[in-house]
């Protein structure tokens, strides 16, 4: 088994004049062959995404509740599972329930499923919450900088769009469908 040992770490804080900041860790590791390599790591907070499935009606398949919003890194609208950043010290299950209600107005029976790393170059985790038997009970309560469109998609169509990668956060969708035995 190869061993990677950290040689150095320095955290940079990139600050925009409007107060927005991004933290980047510069980490240097010694590789198994003796070379040293420096990596730039996104130091981010954890977030939560919610696989929300509506309460099925007799004879009608349940829908998955999705959101569509502009993502500046992609420079396009993205179809994705609802969710967002966790507040400091917030329990991921409670954060998922909160984010789902704020973004979509839906509530239901919630279960925490686990977490995945954002990427190999990030310290943040994406937590997955499954909500079933969901009903719309409220209006959206979006932040001033959020412009979110709510979409409902039949479960069979959701599965197909996950396979093609058309839905951002599809890994968490697979976690939820596996948990429900619907893969």
CATH topology assignment of the largest domain: Nucleoside Triphosphate Pyrophosphohydrolase
The amount of beta strand, in percent, is over 45%
Seen as an oligomer or otherwise, the chain set is: single chain
Helix-and-strand structural type? alpha+beta
Question: Describe it for me?
Answer:
With 183 residues, this protein is α+β, with helices and mostly antiparallel strands. It folds into two domains: 5-43, no CATH class; 47-179, Nucleoside Triphosphate Pyrophosphohydrolase. It is 17% helix and 46% strand. It has helices at residues 92-104, 155-163, 170-179, and strands at 5-15, 21-30, 36-43, 47-54, 63-71, 76-80, 83-85, 106-117, 125-136, 149-154. The strands form two sheets. Strands 4, 5, 6, 7, 8, 9 and 10 form a seven-stranded mixed beta sheet that branches. It has a three-stranded antiparallel beta sheet with strand order 1-2-3, with no helix packed on it. The longest helix is centred in the middle third of the chain and has 13 residues, at 92-104. It starts with a strand and ends with a helix.
Describe this structure in a few short sentences.
The chain has helices at residues 92-104, 155-163, 170-179, and strands spanning 5-15, 21-30, 36-43, 47-54, 63-71, 76-80, 83-85, 106-117, 125-136, 149-154. The chain has 183 residues and is α+β, with helices and mostly antiparallel strands.
């Amino acid at each position: 088994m190869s061993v990677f040992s950290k040689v150095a770490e320095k955290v940079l804080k990139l600050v925009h004049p409007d107060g927005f900041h991004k933290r980047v860790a510069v980490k240097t590791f010694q590789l198994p062959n003796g070379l040293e390599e420096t990596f730039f790591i996104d130091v981010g907070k954890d977030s939560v995404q919610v696989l929300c499935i509506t309460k099925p009606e007799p004879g009608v398949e349940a829908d998955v509740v999705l959101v569509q919003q502009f993502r500046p890194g992609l420079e396009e609208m993205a179809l994705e599972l609802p969710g967002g950043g966790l507040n400091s010290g917030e329990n991921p299950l409670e954060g998922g329930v909160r984010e789902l209600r704020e973004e979509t107005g839906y509530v239901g029976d919630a279960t925490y499923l686990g977490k995945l790393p954002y990427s190999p170059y990030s310290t943040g985790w994406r937590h997955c919450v499954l909500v079933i038997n969901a009903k719309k009970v409220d209006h959206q309560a979006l932040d001033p900088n959020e412009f979110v469109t709510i979409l409902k998609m039949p479960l069979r169509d959701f599965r197909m769009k996950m396979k093609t990668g058309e839905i951002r956060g599809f890994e968490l969708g697979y976690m939820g469908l596996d948990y429900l035995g619907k893969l």
